[in-house]
Amino acid sequence: MHYRTASPASPEPDGTSPIPLVMLHASPGSAKLLEPLIARLGNSRTVYAPDTLGNGDSSAPVSDQVDIRYFAQVHVQAIDQLGIERFDLYGSHTGANIACEIAIAYPGRVRKLILDGVSQYTDDERDDMLKHYAPGVDIDMNGGQLAWIYQFVRDVYLFWPWYKRDAAHRRSIGLPSADELHDKAVEVIKATRTYHIPYRAAIGYDKTSRLPMVRVPTLLACAQTDMFLEYFDRICRLMPEARPLITAGTGNAEALENTVAQYLAFLDAQDENTYLI
Q1: How confident is residue 14, by pLDDT bands cut at 50, 70 and 90?
Q2: Sheet-wide strand order for 3-6
Q3: DSSP secondary structure, 58-107, as one string
Q4: Number of helical H runs and strand E runs in the chain
Q5: Distance CA 185, CA 154 (A)
Q6: What per-residue confidence (pLDDT) applies to 15?
Q7: 90, 117, 89: which is closest to 249 by C-alpha?
Q8: Percent of the chain having pLDDT more than 90?
Q9: CA dihedral for 94, 97, 103, 106, sign (positive or negative)
Q10: What mean pLDDT comes out for the span 168-184?
Q11: At CA 93, angle to CA 120 and CA 250, rounded to 5?
Q12: 252 Ramachandran zone, left/alpha/beta (phi>0; psi -120 to 50)
């Protein structure tokens, strides 16, 4: 499992250090997409951000028929290899699903949990997305997979879901910069053969039954521009003890600073022994 890390340039004056933060990225792509958050949060604590198996530079899962619990377990195995016992945990989209399962299975090890963007599909929506959202990609001699992946990555910003390219499903956030779009496409191209495995596990994850089982202090966040904002109220009802927060996201420097400040306020608050936050 490949991971990125950041840590403060100098130790705390009293020689102590905050509990480490593990960050789990969204699909598709890799932890590279979290680099702005990793860098800012790494100014005050050590951050570890792995590429999910089947994404970025990590190895493939053991099978193409694995679920979110599998991803949670292999992430904990990686955390163990890093020598980390207790940690704060952040997850976005697919990473939020994995983070939920880690928190459910290891409540004594997860001090605080940040969930950034969580969906809750109806049965029909889930079935439709499992069929269409993350298909396997054929690799051909003409490089057709390169064009398909670039268009797939681009169209996620234009439509929700991306494969329903009509006015009713149009998003209004616009495209990111060419550099950001290129970087994301490259990370998905690395995982052409396997990107769909964690994606399908996330789409099939039963959040209705699992989210109420989380028993660690939780910040339930969602960016104003996140397509999952439409599910926010429903997710809040599943986790009534969690602290809800709609953020400005990380799309520009000001929004990034505001979001980081809100995350740090939650992580640094002295309420870790209280679930009702």
Answers
A1: low
A2: 3-6, 47-50, 21-24, 87-92, 110-116, 218-223, 243-247
A3: SPPPS-SS--HHHHHHHHHHHHHHTT--SEEEEEETHHHHHHHHHHHH-T
A4: 10, 7
A5: 8
A6: 63
A7: 117
A8: 94
A9: negative
A10: 95
A11: 125
A12: beta
Sequence letter at residue 125: E
* Length reported for the chain: 277
Q: CB–CB of 46/20 below 8 Å?
A: yes
How far is Cα 232 from Cα 174, in angstroms, rounded to an integer? 21
Q: What is the mean pLDDT of residues 206-220?
A: 97
Pairing of strands 243-247, 110-116: unpaired
> 18 is written with which tokens?
């905050």
Tokens of 30: 């890799």
Contact between 20 and 165 (Cβ < 8 Å) = no
Q: What 3-state DSSP class applies to 268? A: helix
